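Glycoside hydrolase family 3 protein
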Amino acid sequence: MTKLDGDLDPLWQDLDWAIGQMLLMGWDGTEVTPQIRHLIEEHHLGSILLTAKNLKSAQQTAKLVQELQAIARQAGHPQPLLIALDQENGGVNSLFDDDFICQFPSSMGQAAAGNADLAYQIAKATATEVSAVGVNLILGPVLDVLTNARYQPLGVRATSDDPQEVSQYGIAAMNGYKDAGVATCGKHFPSYGNLDFLGSSLDMPIITQTLEELSLSSLVPFRNAIATGKLDAMFVGGCGISNPSMNVNHACLSDQVVDDLLRNELGFRGVAISECLEMEVLRNEIGVKTGTVMAVEAGVDLVFLCRAYDVQLEAISGLKLGVENGLITKDRIYTSLRRVLHMKNSCTSWAKALNPPGISLLSKIHPSHRALSLKAYDDSIAVIRDNEKLLPLTGWMHREEELLLLTPLVKPLPATSMTKTLLESKNKSDTPPLVHDSPWVAHRDRGSIMSGEGVFRELGRSLARARHGKLLHTSYTANGVRPVHEHLINRASCIILVTADANRNLYQAGFTKHVSMMCSMLRANGQRKSLVVVAVSSPYDFAMDKSIGTYICTFDFTETAMSALVRVLTGSVKPHGTLPGTLRKSRKVLKSRQHWLVEAYDRDRDAKGLSDLLQALARACAPANPFLQTTNPHTFELSDPNVEESHFVVRNSSTQALYGFCSTYYIEGTGIIGALFVDPTKRNVSIGRSLQRRALRGLIQRRGLKKLQLGTCFPGVFLGIPTEDSVGLKQWFANSGWDLQFPKRLTNMTVGVLGNWSAPEGLLQSIQRANISFDLIHGLDNAESVLDHVAAHSDPEVLELYRFALQETKTCGVVRAKNAMESLLGTVIICSPGSTLANFIPPLQTPTTDEHDLIGGIIAPIVPPSTAQANLVLQGLALMGLRQNKAHKALRSVLSWVEGEAHEPLLAMGFEVLHAFEQFTNSPDNWRDLA
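Tokens:
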């Protein structure tokens, strides 16, 4: 019998208990059934997914979850159940209760609002609400990249087709969930953003991209979210993969996808959750018993069985049989068990599970969440074109003129009162599930019609009330333009035509083009006939069709979204939303020549704005640039008499918000741009270009300028262009005039747990045999040889860094390496935790609030490559630095500014790369036009 480690309760020695923790199951019905009770009590089921079929209201949900947890507690479960929920907002919300649960825009709608901080607030609000009724795991954020955005059924559930934008908003949402105390689950790995339906629409969709293509696009948000260390779980999809290097029928059953790609390549250490194994195609091809074993063998920790009790029992018996047959080892089960229990520890406890705050908390927070919802929807509505200046309608339409609303017959979204009514009136066993379906169900059911007129009927009523005039409303279907439509179009002065995924419901595209042509003909005959097209789901319906002169996108058609649309149409709200991803960028190229007013940075006026800007950047750039978390406005101000510094801002003079910041330094003929960044929500509108041109102009005007440098070690925020995002940034700087052919690599490294580190075997003996000795000096009095050495072998800002360190005699010193003749071979700065130097080198500051998490510094080792045994000298300096850091009670060491390939011998000592940069030096002649 496998012996359990001391960290696990002896109860788990019983494999039946351990297997129960590896299952995620659901059921149909709003009350606890004998079947779900049996699964919890007898099969020790540890995780439950609730769907819209289980939930009637917030109060009923809280009572239901409390009952489930009480059953588990009475059955002897050591830890509470995981209670999971799809609550993505937009069209995918399992819990709907207009009195207590707020509706927010879809992921794409949030991106359209252009504010990642708003996305964070929405996620935190959503998680706080579902946590109040006992939910502790949200199946989100959606991290899929819509690689082929126009035709993908995932639609507005995804952020956009831009991997970096998906990363930014996905991480913001994940942080919001975590800060509300709820566990997170990224989905749908490796991507549902570019699925091909090669056979019938009932077949399994296929990813045909190569691994290289996936790595450059679809996998980027998953990689970035994993790197934050805050992603608790990953939902592995059930799609197939077919490319030259991988042929997989079901991703969640493949060790190539789960163990190799997700865990080994991307470094994911959390809980892997499978797609529902009740999928018809999987049941027919493999069978649930074998499929469950395959999933666990592939590396899945939680096997998901949606709702069929007989299938769930089949899966349990399959797992037990897999153990008996030796296909699944006990060690494999306990590996998954530890992951699941670790996630439970992070998001729940018995005290929390049995006593959710419920309605009392929801009542208290509802007003503020409602205000956030209204703001989010108002900010998300995007007017893509208004060539005829038709908005607002109240600006030109008389009350007596008739307004016609044409809407398609579509399924209502799950997060609407219409759906709630339908579920209550049609609660039959054969009713198709509305919420936790595979995302390609829309593709399969696109021909079906289910009355969604309720939402659009209320849209018509609201619009009529808002404009105090007459409104005509009728629906249209695949039957095209009928006589009734022609009659109403002839009567109306303005037609509002609604589409919902017209790219996949082609009858809508044909109907819209037909109506557009009719309006053009009637206008040519002298009639007043204006057309406004509103895409209430995918924004891609007519985004690129310039023949549609006025085009609005709402990104979902819940009642809340339609209310925001009315406010935009009638002028009570000015729309600010934009198209997502690359479409946004393609529009903003038109604005790329605009110039922003650049002002000199003023500490008293701008410090608060810069602090806010840095915080926004830290959220947006995680995990690529974690050092931004510890950067503050004073980091950039050296106040060094040998360094001339000038910093610039683009700001909103009305609100004092900073949209961009650039720091520059001039020293001994070298002009340096030390930092250049722009508010993530204000990119692609030339703020960075305006800042850089002003900064370069100021440097070029310096007398004696010999070269311009991108990146600096003092202050050490950006040593150059971060390699994590080098492709896009390098292209931007190249377009701005920089020659980027000859980069200098600079690396920050770390020893994460200094107490566990020991010198590599034989290193001390090698140093002794080479007759290399070391000493530590403080102060400038005996530092002439050190400063001469640095001046001869490094840049002028590095020399100033050494001068600064030598003056800080209490917390900093310089270690010298000498040969037997007492000649200087190399130098390095050592600083103790909390040194003044850390104010200017953010990696030396801990991003946590733990006062015991102390970081020691080993800064700017200078060892000329021509030095005999240069690598050994460098390793010796690093060794002395680590010893000094240990002596100063540091728990970690950061080695900053390692030049070129010198980081490689340090890797052999146990250092790890923290972040790497590429620094560039150019001639001022590249920017003669600025002189």
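DSSP finds 30 helices and 32 strands in the chain.
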